[in-house]
Amino acid sequence: MIRRDRDSTTTQRRTLHPAKVGDGHDESASLVVLQGQRLGQRVDVAAAPVTIGRAPECEFQIVDRSVSRQHARIWREPSGYRIKDLDSTNKTLLNDQPIIEAELKDGDHISIGACVLKFMDRSSVEARYHDEIYQLATMDPLTGLYNRRHFLELLDRELARSASHARPLALLIVDLDHFKSINDRHGHPAGDVVLRQVSAALDACMRDDAILARIGGEEFAAILPEHGIEAATEFARRLCGAVAALTLDAQAGTRRVTVSIGVANWRAGMALVGDLMRAADAQLYRAKQSGRNRVCSEAVS
Ligand SMILES: Nc1nc2c(ncn2[C@@H]2O[C@H](COP(=O)(O)OP(=O)(O)OP(=O)(O)O)[C@@H](O)[C@H]2O)c(=O)[nH]1
Q: Which NCBIfam families match (predicted)?
């Protein structure tokens, strides 16, 4: 399953698969971050123009002080791709030369503040190579979900977005109950089957704008944009029920598993990702202590 980000970059595919030749993406060009924030990330440039800048409404947002709120725009014309500087403070450089507007060619380097992007013809072998490397760096190979490091980067960005729009955001931490005993009794491969099936069940419940990741051995986390504590808690209860109702494959050694879930909401004053993670973790601890197979949240008991 591939889900597109609201800013049309590749980062919010909750589950990642390498782009295939001939899957329709080949027609668009792409930008890869070679240096700076969001290193390795690729963004497609297709029919719709892409604005690069610090502002949350930019299609490609780079949260860095050296980048103007609306720094540069790239778009496609019948003759090829073009780039225009949007009167940025630090200028847009194309292959180290400041530009106002210019044509883009395969392999061009674009400097946006402290960030360097490489422009590539989407059909090039190099673009696919970057895609593969990026996905290896951001995904968990067992489940196909995002890995912890990438999840924390996305949480950072989503928090900035929620703060700037004063919109709610919830974080769920989901932990399998008594998972060690499954490994001990049925072996590690059986535990892996459980992890894969549970991650697929969680993924199937997610809305398009949710971000799901495996952040530890038997621990998952989900970012729910636009969710207050009540809605997030209700959603977490549905997740809990979906996992409890799951009939696992015979290779899992056991037919049933349950999860405990901690829920926390982003609040003004919670500047750091760590604050929100700690708040959700404290609720997860409560859920484990009070019997497992349940949801605990900050405001709802
Ligand atoms: N099969 C498998 N097991 C893993 C993986 N990563 C971590 N684990 C195991 O996950 C288990 C986690 O055990 P604990 O932290 O004790 O948690 P638990 O048994 O689920 O207990 P509670 O969380 O308190 O309900 C350990 O046995 C780890 O070896 C993995 O990728 N595959």
A: GGDEF
